[in-house]
Each structure stands twice: as structure tokens, then as C-alpha cells.
């Protein structure tokens, strides 16, 4: 809690004011005690010793500081009244913030008088997130105007800055409960597939800049076989950009049951509070392979380096028109080598010099 108390200065019969600012007023007050009055002071005779304004306490850099979480009801400045002075408090308006907002912000502070003591008391916790939500401003500092009124002298106004210090109340959060991204198998190496900064937030309001710090990527220990670090990397840690690191081939990944990867990613705020989450990446098949013929009698060869030759034969009368169903050893089957199951269209073409009715050879 920050509470500064007035240091009373005995003024005697002469009261002095600085001509330009409060600091001078304090200096002038010292001269008054010696009945001196330099040229930069205004000196008046006090008819009554009490007929004067009290002085504000010495405030370093003329700036008070309170945390945004300070409890409502906490006093932040105390002034001992001389008895004849009367103090008022207002909020200085500045910047582009409109008047109605200043009126509402003024209600965060109250000046109370308890006996001969004036106290500025926080009427409401100056929660930076709450203020941003209400007024859409990232509040950093306010200026309090304290004015002393006495019967026979001009009003004296003092400006005191009040800095609201941010408190790290929230860890980084992800905007979606489950982060997932589909990536086509033909995505080129070096392509950015996702920027974590677009999917992350930190509820803390930081008037000095970005609250989020760096992003990170570590091993996915829960299922090391599906850790996507072999295929993806984080390039820009300030943006959390995930980049393709290794060629993605859906058809090569299917036999390994590896068309889904997981990345253990993290987001930290500038205070070092870190939140981890799992990014799921699904590799999506694209139509990058042609159809293939297949025959149940051929062995399954995954890398297709060993062709299987099958001869199909059908015997037809010369003038027959219609479906060929008596093909030996079986009907001709073909399929899309992608998993997209694109509809296939068959055609029969003769090589140069061949005559229909002899035989048709198809090669795997
Ligand atoms: Ca934070
Ligand atoms: Ca905060
Ligand atoms: Ca494919």
C-alpha cells in the first residue's frame, strides 16, 4: 500500500508561493520561515497562521504507483489540513478518450475528509482488464488534480500522476480447445501451415506492448511414434509459425498408419508463464497418382518395383456386339492409387498393327 503523509511546514506570519510550480512553492516556504522572499516567490502576510493551504507530501517523480489489483478502499494519498483549507479532487482529461469515459474513471477515486485529514481513497479496483472491457482503453497513467481553496488566497492546484501497474493475472490461452490443422500431402517444404500467434491470447492488458512472449515446440512424449517433429518445425518463435520440414507423401504414410501427427507446442507470456497444448495435424490425400490395374492373383508389392504380368483373354464371335464377360482369368479391375476413390473410366485402344480379336495384354 502506498500512503504518503504531509510534512507540515510552519509558515509564521509570511506565506510564500512559487511563481511557476509546486517545487518552487516548497522552496519559497523555506524562505518564509526566515522572513525572506526571493524574486521567484510571491509572499503574502497571513492574517491567521491557519489561513493557508497545507502542502502535499513529497512524491518521488510526482508519481504515485498502485497495482491494478489494489483493494477498493485503500488510501493512496493523505493530506493534513491546516483547518482553513478545503481540498477537492478531479481527474485531468487528456488524449482522445471522450468525456463520458473520464466521468466514469473519476468515480474510481474519492477524496474523503476524516477530521483534519484528507485522503484519496480508491473507490474501485483499477483492474486494467475491466477498464479495457468497459472503455476499450489500455490505461497506463492518470493525472489527479488536487485543488486547495482558502478564503483569502487564490486556489492552488497540484497535478499528481498516478501510474496503474499491470499485474500478471492470466496465463496464455488458446482460442480453441483443440488445435488442429489439415495439410495437403503436396504442401511444399518451407510452407508455413499455421501461426500460433493467431490462435493464442493473454487476457492481461499490458499498456506497454505485447503481453504474449515467445512460442515453443518440444517433444510429444505421449505418443512418440506420432510426434510430428520429423515433418514439421517451428521457424519464427515470436510468431509461432509451423513450417513443413520434410516431404509429405500420403500414400507412403498410410502403410505406417501415420497420416496424423501431433506437435507439443507452447505459448509464454512476457513474464515467463507458459501454457502447453497439442496441435493435431492431419495429412490430406490429393489426386497426385494415376489409376492402376490390379489382379487378385498378383502379390502385393508396396513399392511397386516388381510388375506382375497378367494376360487376359476373351473369345468372341466376329460380329458380336455387347459386354465381354467371359474374360479369363478374371474381369479387368482397376483402382485409383490415391485414397480419393475417384471414379474411373476404362477405354480400349489398339496399338499400331494390332487387330481386334487376337488378344489384349495388360501389364501391372
Ligand atoms: Ca499474462
Ligand atoms: Ca492483469
Ligand atoms: Ca495422393
TrEMBL record:
InterPro entries: Cadherin-like_dom, Cadherin-like_sf, Protocadherin/Cadherin-CA. GO terms for biological process: homophilic cell adhesion via plasma membrane adhesion molecules. Gene3D superfamilies: Cadherins. Residues 175-293 form the Cadherin domain. It is a single-pass membrane protein. One of its GO terms (cellular component) is plasma membrane. Residues 1-18 form the signal peptide. Its main location: membrane. Keywords: Calcium, Glycoprotein, Membrane, Signal, Transmembrane, Transmembrane helix. SMART domains: CA. GO terms for molecular function: calcium ion binding. It is found in: Membrane. This is Cadherin-99C.
Amino acid at each position: 500500500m502506498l500512503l504518503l503523509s504531509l510534512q507540515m511546514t510552519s509558515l509564521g506570519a509570511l506565506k510564500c508561493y512559487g511563481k511557476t510550480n509546486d517545487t518552487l512553492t516548497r522552496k519559497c516556504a523555506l524562505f518564509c520561515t526566515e522572513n525572506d522572499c526571493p524574486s521567484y516567490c510571491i509572499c503574502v502576510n497571513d492574517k491567521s497562521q491557519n489561513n493557508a493551504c497545507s502542502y502535499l507530501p513529497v512524491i518521488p517523480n510526482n508519481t504515485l504507483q498502485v497495482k491494478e489489483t489494489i483493494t477498493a478502499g485503500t488510501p493512496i494519498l493523505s493530506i493534513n489540513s491546516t483547518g482553513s483549507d478545503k481540498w477537492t479532487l478531479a481527474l485531468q482529461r487528456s488524449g482522445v478518450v471522450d468525456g463520458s469515459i473520464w466521468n466514469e474513471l473519476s468515480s474510481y477515486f474519492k477524496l474523503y475528509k476524516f477530521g483534519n485529514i484528507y485522503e484519496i481513497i480508491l473507490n474501485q479496483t483499477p483492474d486494467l482488464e475491466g477498464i479495457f472491457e468497459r472503455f476499450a482503453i489500455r490505461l497506463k497513467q492518470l493525472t489527479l488534480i488536487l485543488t486547495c481553496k482558502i478564503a483569502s488566497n487564490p486556489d492552488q492546484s497540484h497535478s499528481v500522476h498516478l501510474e496503474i501497474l499491470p499485474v500478471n493475472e492470466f496465463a496464455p490461452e488458446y482460442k480453441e480447445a483443440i488445435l488442429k490443422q489439415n495439410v495437403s500431402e503436396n504442401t511444399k517444404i518451407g510452407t508455413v501451415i499455421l501461426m500460433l500467434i493467431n490462435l493464442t491470447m493473454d487476457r492481461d492488458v499490458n499498456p506497454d506492448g505485447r503481453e504474449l512472449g515467445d512460442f515453443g515446440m518440444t517433444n510429444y512424449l505421449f505418443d512418440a511414434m506420432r510426434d510430428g517433429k520429423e515433418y514439421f518445425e517451428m521457424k519464427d518463435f515470436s510468431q509461432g509459425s509451423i513450417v513443413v520440414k520434410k516431404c509429405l507423401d500420403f500414400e507412403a504414410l498410410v502403410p505406417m498408419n501415420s497420416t496424423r501427427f501431433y506437435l507439443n507446442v507452447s505459448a509464454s507470456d512476457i513474464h515467463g508463464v507458459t501454457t502447453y497444448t497439442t496441435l493435431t495435424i492431419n495429412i490430406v490425400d490429393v489426386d497426385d497418382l494415376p489409376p492402376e490395374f490390379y489382379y487378385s492373383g498378383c502379390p502385393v508389392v508396396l513399392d511397386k518395383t516388381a510388375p506382375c504380368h497378367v494376360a487376359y483373354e476373351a473369345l468372341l464371335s466376329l460380329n458380336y456386339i455387347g459386354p465381354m464377360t467371359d474374360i479369363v482369368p478374371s474381369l479387368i479391375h482397376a483402382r485409383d492409387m490415391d485414397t480419393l476413390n475417384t471414379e474411373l473410366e476404362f477405354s480400349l485402344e489398339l496399338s499400331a498393327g494390332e487387330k481386334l480379336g487376337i488378344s489384349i495384354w495388360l501389364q501391372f
